[in-house]
Structure to design on (460 residues):
């Protein structure tokens, strides 16, 4: 049984988790059903196919690295010395194939429902079982008989958004799959670095140290003059709500072509405008509110040495919620994102994830809960983009029509936003603390209104 040690960032996600803040990401896929039994058929298909996907058979096992046999407590009785050594024996964790893997433990068929998001919210509350491969697929038949949904949950230590997509897509069937492009041959790698590369390696180590200092200083600056809203923070209730909004990608491109920037700039500006509407309507007020948004950035490259787990950095920017004019909000977002891109994803307050590489396993083990609680000091809301394939997907012949990505909720936060583009439409997936945000559907409605406002502002 081959074991693969968790990379530092994966280990951090594994140890940050708590009962009130499970660290799984998810996607709620909605399918058109050809018959009322399509949901049950989909559950059977998922279970039968899961066994053939190696990544879904991987469990995460904590690694205990005992101290040497020569005890530092020689005068103590052996059992007493063993107890005293155990707190010092924390190690990391590793992925390994689960010899007892049973797909039936991971695929669940639920009763028919008229509200996929309501059920998904309750399922998002439940942490994944940590003693077996940390993923689940919940099949939700629709009461209408013409649709069903599947909620895929993956622990963040097992996969980032791109990796989770790959695992979920492996259980489905592609439609109109484009022809693969030829890949260049990968150069051979030596076991040891060439001595001529040593100066570059030393410079790399010094650069890493400088980067860590830059990130730390940027984080300290980002905490100054924080102007968030109490509505974006809460004491954890352990409950979850989810909601979604679907936009026409052509509308987003109309806005982008009119004012410049990128599609992502527009999508982030829509979040800022929707938050402004939502805060004003619930009486919290948007005046002077510029919450810090963490925008994760994937550092994953094709055929990387670590295809599993997380390869992430991020950008941190102030969302101009306090700006009343919609095009001005978009211009501020564009400027902030351009500034982040010029600096690169390896520096700045958003790149804190890179510091995980400099923390030993014991530090992740002991400091995980503290790091989780510190998220509220670092940023106010997560706004993440999860890539989806350009081709369509089916499950048992039933086409996937919508995909709502769902991000984990950080301790102290009331809201997280994820966005995906699929077959010409943009899907916003909203996750919130159920007690703090009972009006999450209203925020989803504000997303639609903000896009309409931007279009009107571009085409008066």
């Amino acid at each position: 049984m081959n074991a693969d040690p968790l990379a530092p960032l994966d280990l951090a996600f594994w140890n940050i988790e708590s009962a009130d803040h499970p660290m799984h990401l998810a996607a709620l896929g909605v399918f058109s059903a050809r018959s009322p039994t399509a949901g049950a058929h989909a559950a059977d298909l998922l279970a039968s196919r899961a066994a053939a996907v190696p990544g879904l058979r991987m469990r995460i096992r904590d690694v205990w690295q005992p101290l040497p046999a020569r005890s530092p407590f020689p005068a103590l009785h052996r059992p007493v010395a063993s107890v005293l050594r155990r707190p010092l024996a924390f190690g990391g964790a590793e992925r390994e194939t689960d010899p007892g893997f049973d797909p039936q433990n991971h695929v669940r068929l639920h009763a028919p429902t008229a509200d996929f998001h309501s059920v998904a919210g309750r399922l998002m509350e439940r942490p994944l079982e940590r003693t077996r491969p940390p993923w689940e697929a919940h099949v939700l038949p629709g009461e209408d008989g013409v649709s069903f949904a599947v909620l895929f949950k993956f622990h963040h230590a097992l996969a980032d958004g791109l990796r989770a997509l790959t695992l979920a897509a492996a259980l489905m069937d592609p439609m109109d799959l484009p022809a693969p492009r030829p890949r260049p041959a990968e150069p051979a790698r030596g076991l040891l670095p060439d001595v001529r590369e040593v100066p570059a390696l030393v410079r790399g180590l010094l650069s890493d140290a400088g980067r860590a200092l830059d990130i730390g200083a940027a984080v300290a600056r980002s905490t100054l003059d924080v102007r968030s809203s109490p509505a974006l923070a809460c004491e954890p209730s352990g409950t979850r709500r989810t909601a979604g909004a679907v936009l026409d990608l052509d509308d987003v491109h109309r806005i982008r072509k009119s004012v410049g920037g990128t599609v992502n700039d527009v999508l982030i500006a829509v979040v800022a405008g929707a938050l402004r509407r939502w805060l004003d309507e619930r009486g919290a007020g948007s005046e002077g509110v510029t919450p810090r948004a963490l925008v994760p950035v994937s550092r994953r490259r094709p055929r990387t040495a670590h295809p599993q787990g997380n390869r992430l950095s991020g950008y941190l920017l102030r969302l101009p919620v306090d700006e009343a004019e919609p095009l001005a909000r978009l211009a501020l977002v564009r400027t902030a994102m351009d500034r982040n891109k010029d600096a690169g994803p390896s520096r700045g307050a958003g790149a804190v994830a890179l510091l995980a590489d400099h923390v030993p396993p014991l530090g992740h083990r002991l400091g995980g809960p503290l790091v989780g609680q510190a998220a509220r000091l670092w940023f106010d809301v997560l706004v993440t983009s999860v890539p989806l394939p350009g081709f369509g997907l089916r499950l048992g012949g039933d086409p996937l029509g919508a995909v709502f990505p769902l991000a984990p909720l950080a301790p102290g936060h009331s809201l997280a936003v994820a966005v995906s583009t699929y077959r010409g439409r943009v899907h916003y997936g909203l996750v919130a603390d159920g007690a703090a945000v009972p009006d999450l559907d209203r925020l989803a409605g504000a997303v639609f209104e903000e896009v309409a406002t931007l279009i009107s502002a571009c085409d008066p």
Summary: The radius of gyration is 23 Å. The chain has two domains: 3-66+84-174, 213-386+408-458. The longest helix spans residues 198-222.
